[in-house]
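User: Just a sanity check before I run the rest of the batch. Below are the structure tokens for the first item. I only need the designed sequence back.
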């Protein structure tokens, strides 16, 4: 197959797993989809491809707009989308980053083996569910005042270190060491701060979760050893973001940008792509607010990490240090960063927008933590509750092919509404239990929305990433127990 027709949009095969929509009309660059034919058929079922075409209209976009193999329809910009936009003469687009700013994942290692957990699954899942706030609305591990929130917005995981919720190695193994220095708490609205005040240290709802897992497959022993991972090892995956604070930041600036930059908006095919010109007051203010929300999300995941360590101490009767519950890495999914990349005109500073995509830098890049600089950045790809997840390594081709990015997960196949119509939460829970996966959530509806059949095949998503060289397989992990909002 050399072309693929998707309801009037024709994609041309550039090479294996790379499909291109040539520029037409107001498209400034081509659009590229990284997918196998199987995944491309799934991606074509919703508005993902049209949204990707729309994104190519953004001023200053370089090379091409990209859809990762887990891509699906989002708001304005597709989930799984990546765009590198000129940071001097282009723009920054809140909708192309997402409402849940710095939704991301982190993995904790342990020295436990699967046999240490077997027989304690129910005790462990009940204890985690009791200790870690989940679901919509308020309730967090830290109930702070406005000053607490502002300190978190300013300092990120450094604040956790000062308050006793983190150790130095947590910072060393977090993207950007857990702090965006460009954060501007003053650019975050009072309403956003109030929404975050009682949500510090909470999973939230939707697809966010905490999952205890075991390493079942090792694909690259050298890099697995560098990451401290081995077969049979128990690990913990935490997936959440900036909660209501991040959502409010995105909403606030979308509305302000729509009003202040209506001329630019009129040139874009979707108002959800509303963008502020680089160098404008709103572009600078949004970037500062977004970086502050990024810090807040890192604090959120760090507080959950702290509480998780406490739960493991209680359940297994040993200190978390004796259990060697060290952070492997923390990666962001919804984010824009100023990064330097090679484009047609040479090296250029770009706003790299990643919406439902993971940074995947290879060895040698200065942004990779020192512990991993010789092998490449860990990339964590969560799958469904029934399929397991992967740890990859930043691929050697990623800088040339994808602005140093790869997929962020399995990617949804169906909406939450459709999922609740097709699945019954208790049935899903029972089926998973038969597979020795213990799941606990606020409601059966939450489990139905996140049923394994709701997601694409994570093995296929990772295969494409690995074969493209943008994220190389290191280990595969499978679920033991899972808590959800």
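Assistant: Here's the designed sequence for the first item:
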């Amino acid at each position: 197959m050399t072309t693929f027709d998707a309801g009037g949009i024709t994609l041309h095969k550039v090479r294996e797993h790379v499909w291109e929509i040539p520029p037409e009309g107001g498209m400034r660059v081509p659009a590229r989809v990284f997918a196998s034919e199987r995944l491309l058929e799934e991606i074509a079922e919703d508005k993902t491809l049209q949204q990707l075409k729309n994104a190519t209209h953004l001023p200053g976009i370089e090379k091409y707009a990209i859809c990762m193999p887990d891509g699906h329809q989002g708001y304005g910009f597709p989930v799984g989308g990546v765009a590198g936009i000129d940071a001097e003469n282009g723009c920054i687009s809140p909708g192309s980053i997402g409402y849940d700013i710095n939704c991301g994942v982190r993995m904790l290692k342990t020295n436990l083996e699967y046999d240490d957990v077997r027989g304690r699954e129910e005790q462990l899942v009940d204890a985690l569910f009791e200790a870690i706030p989940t679901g919509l609305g308020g309730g967090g591990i830290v109930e702070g005042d406005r000053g607490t929130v502002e300190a978190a917005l300013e300092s990120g995981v450094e604040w956790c270190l000062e308050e006793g919720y983190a150790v130095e190695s947590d910072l060393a193994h977090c993207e950007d060491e857990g702090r965006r220095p460009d954060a501007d708490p003053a650019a975050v609205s009072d309403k956003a701060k109030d929404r975050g005040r009682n949500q510090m240290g909470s999973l939230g709802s939707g697809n966010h979760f905490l999952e205890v897992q075991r390493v079942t497959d090792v694909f690259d022993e050298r890099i697995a050893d560098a990451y401290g991972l081995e077969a049979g090892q128990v690990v913990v995956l935490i997936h959440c973001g900036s909660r209501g604070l991040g959502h409010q930041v995105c909403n606030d600036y979308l509305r302000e940008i729509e009003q202040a930059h209506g001329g630019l908006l009129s040139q874009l095919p979707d108002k959800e792509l509303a963008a502020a010109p680089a160098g404008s007051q709103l572009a600078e203010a949004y970037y500062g607010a977004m970086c502050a929300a990024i810090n807040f999300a890192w604090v959120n995941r760090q507080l959950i990490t702290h509480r998780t360590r406490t739960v493991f101490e209680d359940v297994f009767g040993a200190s978390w240090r004796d259990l060697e519950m060290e952070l492997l890495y923390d990666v962001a999914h919804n984010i824009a960063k100023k990064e330097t990349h090679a484009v047609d005109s040479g090296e250029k500073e770009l706003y790299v927008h990643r919406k439902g995509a993971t940074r995947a830098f290879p060895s040698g890049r200065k942004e990779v933590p020192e512990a991993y600089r010789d092998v490449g950045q860990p990339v964590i790809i969560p799958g469904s509750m029934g399929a397991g997840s992967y740890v990859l390594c930043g691929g050697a081709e990623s800088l040339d092919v994808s602005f140093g990015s790869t997929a962020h997960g399995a990617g949804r196949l169906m909406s939450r509404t459709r999922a609740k119509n097709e699945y019954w939460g208790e049935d899903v829970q029972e089926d998973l239990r038969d597979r020795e996966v213990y799941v606990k959530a606020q409601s059966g509806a939450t489990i139905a929305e996140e049923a394994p059949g709701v997601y694409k095949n994570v093995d296929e998503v990772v295969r494409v990433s690995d074969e493209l060289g943008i994220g190389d397989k290191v280990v595969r992990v499978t679920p033991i127990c899972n808590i959800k909002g």
